[in-house]
Amino acid sequence: MEESQEIIVNAGDIARLAGVGRAAVSNWRRRHEDFPQPVGGTASSPLFSLPEIAVWLRANGKSFEVSLGDLVWQRLRTSADDLRLGELVGRVGAFLLFLHREPAAWRDHGMQSLTRMEAVTPDLPGSFDLRLDDQALLRLVAELAAERGPLDAFEFLFERYVEAHSRQLSVTRDDVAALMVRLVTPDKGVVLDPACGVGTLLLHAGTPLGQEINETSALLTAVRVLLRGAEARIVAGDSLREDGLAGRLADAVVCDPPFNERAWGYEELAGDPRWEYGLPPRGESELAWVQHCLAHVKPGGLVAILMPTAAAGRRPGKRIRANLLRAGALRAVVTLAPGGPDLWVLRRPDGGRPPSQLLVVDAGEDLSIVEPAWRAYAENPEAELSGESRTVRIIDLLDDEVDLTPARHRPQQGSLDFLREFTDALARFKETSATLSDATPALELLAERHDLPTTTVGELAKAGLITILQAPPRMSADEGPLPVLTADDTAVGASPSGRTTLDPALVMVRPGDVVTSVLGAVRLITQSGAALGPQLTLYRVDPQRLDSGFLAGFLRSADAARTHPGSSRLDARRARVPMLPLSDQRRYGTAFRELFELEDRLRETRELGETLIRLGFDGLVDGHLRPCDQGV
Questions:
Q1: Which residue, 445, 522, 446, is CA-closest to 487?
Q2: Residue 396 contacts by C-beta under 8 Å, 6 or more apart in sequence?
Q3: Whole-prediction pTM value?
Q4: CA–CA separation, 199 vs 110, rounded Å?
Q5: Which of 158-162, 307-311, 478-482, 627-631 has the lowest mean pLDDT?
Q6: Pairing between strand 190-193 and 207-212?
Q7: Distance in angstroms (rounded) separating the CA atoms of residues 238 and 620
Q8: Strand order in the sheet with 536-541
Q9: Is residue 533 within 8 Å of residue 575, measured between CB atoms?
Q10: What distance in Å separates the CA atoms of residue 367 and residue 203, rounded to the nearest whole number?
């Protein structure tokens, strides 16, 4: 494969491509006089020639391989400075959209076909010249599209871009984005995001409509949704000052707006008709976004918008909060995590009778409780709810503060309920923690390190000892009769929480399978009955030649060794596994299984401990508990 002399890499890139930590690269530079010298960058962030690095690594026996995707990415990084990198990624995306829509034109006419690119992609926003003059780069991108498909090729490059600019880009969490869309979106309809960023919320929408102030981000969003075959319209511009979709009403609106923006247009927008519930204070830009969203949804349509926790109780915004409540526009306030953000769900009034109660939910990072609570409330807003979800009478909220913070409205338990919950939590915590000392595996400490000959997971797969499987492309894990093991389940050791419909292409997990996520979580499967979810890879061993616990343990070790500030996703095919007889593998596998089990017990103990601590604080504060002398 071509490794162009123009391509340069930084220390983090070298670490990722070599499958080591950033510290290892620093050690190589210090200890090896023949390590290539920087060809650019700064003293604190030097840049190196990729071909020189490749030669040095191979000469020193280091595992190193540049995939086609990495080659394209590194060439992109070399071709533009950080300020223009997003624009270049967007222009590559425009080329991939052209390949997606007219694959035969490129195949038959090559570079000459690009004269049609602007005509083929008229729905891309912004004022950029989308043409690319780097013919070598275009050919590499076309190869990558042929290898992975235009959509997967662009998502690979987009993820690299997000990783490189993680401090500059604000990206909505995937699970939160999916939840927001599920809560408010009808089966079919137009979904608007007026502050769409790089498009995360709109990826879950059927017919996306969006606006974004940053032209580069608007272009990236448009490419992402259009490559998925959606009929989308994305415009660039400031939604509050220059509403590019004025008069357009969507079936639902989702939004993750910028927080704490003081220069949002307070002076020039003072008389704007969107402020139906009151002029937003200068320091309450989020309340401007709330009303902008309501102005763009059809009567009876729903809005899901992320808000800073303080917006539920800040004094300057109390009049608007009160007006939203009186009109029946604000329907739910959900705390998604202890530090925020909160999720507000609103409904544009349509002339019907407003509800007398507001739904408040303190999810405490357990997003699974949000959707059932909202569905129950939407079916009957006057019904009483229990648990971490409850309804609060709106008339009780219309006081001098109009504080909607869910934690403030947590229901006080009766003495018998509290006694039962606290006693149960205390007993379970003591029982679980008492077993930890007996759960450690029997391990022998060696006086000297014992090196073992190794091979890679990729080589084991080539030899037929491992079968590697993945979920079908574009698989949905949101609804259906069949349970799905998701990436989040794998990360926290939880039971399958996703749902999907029956499909012959699904990969069903079996006991003994090893599952890894793209972010490095490793799980040894003990129960069958669930489908493998997106972003997961399954490793199914030949039990007559390879022990699954043995493989899972060394995959887990490969992830731990990879973790560092500049780390990327785990490439399990490169993970090294010792070459041992099956009997020795099984001994290692037993120890690894005991460690996995200990990890699960520790996780359960921590969760029980957190419940006990919460109940302890609550009980001392509300009078259900009081301090006593030790032993009384």
A1: 522
A2: none
A3: 0.66
A4: 30
A5: 627-631
A6: parallel
A7: 49
A8: 466-470, 536-541, 514-517, 522-524
A9: no
A10: 19
- C-alpha distance from residue 280 to each of 100, 285, 329, 389, 556 (Å): 44, 7, 16, 29, 51
Instruction: Please report, as a single letter, which amino acid is at residue 336.
Output: L
- Please name the helix (run of DSSP H) or strand (run of DSSP E) that holds residue 356, with its range, or none: none
3-state secondary structure of 302: strand
pLDDT value at 485 more than 50: yes
Taking the C-alpha atoms of residue 215 and residue 203, their distance in angstroms, rounded to an integer, is 18
Residue 127 CB neighbours (<10 A): 7
Distance from C-alpha of 250 to C-alpha of 302, rounded to nearest angstrom: 9
DSSP state of 334: E
pLDDT at position 547 is: 95
DSSP 492-523: HTPPP-EEE---TTPPBP-TT-EEEETT--EE
Give the Cβ contact number of residue 2 at 10 Å.
13
Per-residue tokens: 554:
């060394």
Handedness of CA 392, 398, 399, 402 (dihedral sign): positive
Query: Over the stretch 268-314, which tens digit does the pLDDT of each residue have?
Result: 999 999 999 999 999 999 999 999 999 999 999 999 999 999 999 99
CA angle 256, 261, 263 (to 5 degrees): 135
Residue 222: what residue type?
A
Which tokens in the block code for residue 53? 């690095």
